[in-house]
Design brief:
This protein is α/β, with parallel strands linked by helices. The protein folds into two domains: about 70 residues, no CATH class; about 350 residues, Alkaline Phosphatase, subunit A (3-Layer(aba) Sandwich), CATH 3.40.720. Helices cover about 30% and strands about 15% of the residues. The strands form five sheets. Strands 1, 4, 5, 6, 7, 8, 11, 12 and 15 form a nine-stranded mixed beta sheet that branches. The protein has a two-stranded antiparallel ribbon with strand order 2-3. A two-stranded antiparallel sheet has the order 9-10. Helix 2 packs across helix 10. The radius of gyration is 24 Å and the shape is globular.
Length: about 475
């Protein structure tokens, strides 16, 4: 409020803008956005070392792809089809409530596998497009986690804690390094799911939240239908010029409010209003695929024109990083194969295989893969043994499995054409060079030029970090 008893405190709009270079809107942008291609808004002293990756595209497969049906080929299992998995392998470890009381842990059949590329990587026959890029990929086959249920496991991967409330990986990145985007957020999220809606997993906002960091660092979700971002369009009768004036006036009031109370969320409000104004101009161009050559659209597959599809989101991811967005998180649900492994697994592979491979190839041919880290993987693996009745093939499934699973990474300082770590002969436990979730997070931050032990934020009397008090960089997979 204006203090009418103190004229010096009553700042007119004309006076306010005469004492600033471009107005509070421009000041807000200067604190968050970039000019001349240089990131702005990050912490002093970062990056801690020269980065190999400038941006991240995280292809998160909600529901957990079965590692032994995709990339972790186990010929030994074929010899024991229909038999129980040895107790010496599973050791009575904790399972989900859906199979923990099963009397028999029987091994079902596997899909076909072949070796591909100069690296000789084994890939399931349902993933022919990924098979074509294996020499660009690094498969980490010894991932393991402590979480056995979906939401805690996803939260653990994306925030470093199984409980909601911590900042997500994308939020930590934009907090530490700032953003290179001039007219878009630094952290964008898109979600998709299988057409059959076979997976009941929910996309919780805290998967891309800012936790206790200022809310300006949270991911901005682009919707899968209608307007990509809510509340960007002006109401009927409100011109862009009038919107500009309203934002300038609102910024004056908010700045006065901030001077009175010192709440950093007020500055976030100013900056986010300004970002929304910039996005009114940038988003229509971003979502216009008419400038894409026909061969590029064909490379991403027939679903690329369907807003909200995984293919559409993969092409959007490339277009976003071209415009300076530093962290793009795509989340695709449909991998939760408890009773539909023999039907839905093939559908999931078909929906995601071609777009994922196309994204890597597209980045590579544009010279972007070298400093863009692409990650593909889920929250855990799925059990090598069968969930369900061996005789009822149509109802075959695999349960949650945190003890060994596979993800792949490409670009951004990762060694291509290699596999790191291994699970045992039944794909049950990580037995060679095990990599836990915090190791993975420490490695991603390292590639971005961040020492995971030094990127911290003080909250409730404690210094927090993405990797909590754990994590080691997986040096052997780095260039």
């Amino acid at each position: 409020m204006f203090d009418f008893m103190n004229p010096a405190a009553a700042v007119t709009r004309r006076h306010f803008f005469s004492t600033t270079a471009t107005g509070i809107g421009g000041a807000a942008l200067a604190s968050l956005l970039t000019r001349d291609g240089h990131a702005a808004g990050g912490l002093a002293g970062l990056p801690h070392h020269p980065p190999k990756a400038k941006r991240v595209i995280y292809l998160f497969m909600n529901g957990a792809p079965p590692h032994i049906d995709t990339f972790d080929y186990k010929p030994e299992m074929e010899k024991h089809r229909g038999e129980e998995i040895p107790e010496s392998i599973h050791k009575g470890q904790r399972l989900s409530t859906m199979t923990q009381n099963s009397k028999k842990l029987v091994l079902p059949a596997l899909p076909g596998f072949k070796q591909h590329g100069n690296s000789g990587a084994w890939v399931c026959d349902y993933l022919p497009h990924t098979a074509g890029i294996v020499d660009d990929l690094c498969f980490v086959k010894s991932m393991h986690s402590s979480a056995v249920n979906h939401a805690p496991a996803i939260t653990f991967f994306l925030t470093g804690s199984e409980m909601p409330g911590r900042p997500s990986m994308g939020a930590w990145m934009t907090y530490g390094l700032g953003t290179s985007a001039a007219e878009l957020p630094g952290f964008v999220v898109m979600t998709s799911r299988d057409k059959e809606a076979s997976c009941g997993q929910i996309f919780y906002d805290f998967y891309w939240g800012s936790g206790f960091l200022p809310s300006k660092y949270q991911g901005v979700k682009f919707r899968g239908s209608g307007e990509p971002v809510l509340y960007l369009s002006n109401p009927d009768g409100l011109s862009r010029e009038l919107r500009r004036g309203l934002l300038d006036d609102l910024a004056v009031l908010n700045e006065q409010h901030h001077q009175e109370f010192g709440d950093p969320e007020i500055l976030t409000r100013i900056a986010q209003y300004e970002m929304a104004y910039q996005m009114q101009a940038s988003v229509p161009d971003l979502t216009d695929f008419s400038t894409e050559p026909a061969h590029i659209l064909e490379m991403y597959g027939p679903d690329v024109h369907r807003q909200g599809s995984y293919a559409y989101n993969c092409l959007m991811a490339r277009r976003l990083i071209e415009r300076g967005v530093n962290f793009v998180q795509l989340m695709h649900a449909g991998w939760d194969h408890h009773r539909n492994l023999t039907t839905q697994f093939a559908i999931q592979c078909k929906d995601t295989d071609q777009p994922s491979a196309a994204l890597v190839k597209d980045l590579k041919q544009r010279g972007l893969l070298e400093d863009t880290l692409v990650i593909w993987g889920g929250e855990f693996g799925r059990t090598p043994f069968l969930q369900g009745n061996m005789a009822d093939v149509k109802a075959w499934g695999r349960d949650h499995h945190p003890y060994a699973f596979t993800l792949w990474m490409a670009g951004g300082g990762i060694k291509p054409g290699m596999a790191y770590g291994a699970s045992d002969e039944f794909g049950y436990n990580a037995v060679e060079n095990p990599v836990d979730v915090h190791d993975f997070q420490a490695t991603v931050l390292h590639l971005l030029g961040i020492d995971h032990e030094r990127l911290t934020f003080r909250f409730q009397g404690r210094q927090f970090r993405l990797t909590d008090v754990h994590g080691h960089v997986v040096e052997p997979i780095l260039i």
